[in-house]
Amino acid sequence: MRFTKWGGKRHHGAELVYLGADEHGDWLGDPVGNQWAGGPKSFVSVTDNVLLVPPDRGMTAMFYTEHPEQAFELYVDITTPSVWDGDLVTAVDLDLDVIRRFDGSWYVDDEDEFAEHQVAYGYPPELVAAAEAECARVSHEIRSGATLLASDTADPWRAVFRTIQS
User: Fold this and answer.
1) Do β-strands 88-100 and 2-4 pair in parallel, antiparallel, or remain unpaired?
2) Alpha-carbon distance 88 to 73, whole Å?
3) What pLDDT was estimated at residue 148?
4) Of 19, 103, 133, 151, which sits 20 to 30 A from 144 (CA to CA)?
């Protein structure tokens, strides 16, 4: 998985394990100790996680496993629709994130960065509108408990990932 910023500027990425697909999209495994690098901040995954890459949506959704060092259960990056090229999937990170904590509370993050980058990176108006619409859609899905972003939806893929790692 590789995320860029608008205009092709590298953001971050990592080697993930392809797990399979279902009606929600493609699922990838992010193993504990995995290095996410290439962007302004590098980080290491502290748990085994699964990433959903839905088709024809401007988002990806990482489902995290509870751990003392893990602050959130779900991290939805608002992006351009993901593009597959062989075994590489790429998307342009559009700054906005919708984050759900383990206690069920949630919030939209990086709205200030989104506003700054609209100017700095020259986001076209249709890109801004698409990102705002996707963020609103994801927020509604979290509020309403939509299956797509439910932890239970990720559980079978966590089991597949555990089996692959054994």
Assistant:
1) parallel
2) 25
3) 96
4) 19
Sequence-separated (6 or more) residues with CB below 8 Å from residue 93? 3, 4, 5, 11, 77, 78, 79
End-to-end CA distance of the chain, in Å?
Answer: 23
Q: pLDDT band for 62, please (50, 70, 90 cuts).
A: very high
Distance of CA 107 to the CA centre of its chain: 15
Structure tokens at 126: 């249709």
Partnered with residue 85 across adjacent β-strands are 88
Cα gap 6→25, rounded to integer Å: 24
Q: How far apart, in whole angstroms, are the C-alpha atoms of residue 106 and residue 113? A: 18
CA-to-CA separations, 19 to 48, 53, 164, in angstroms, rounded: 13, 11, 8
User: What are the tens digits of pLDDT across the range 99-122?
Assistant: 999 999 999 999 999 999 999 999
Query: What is the amino acid identity at position 80?
Result: T
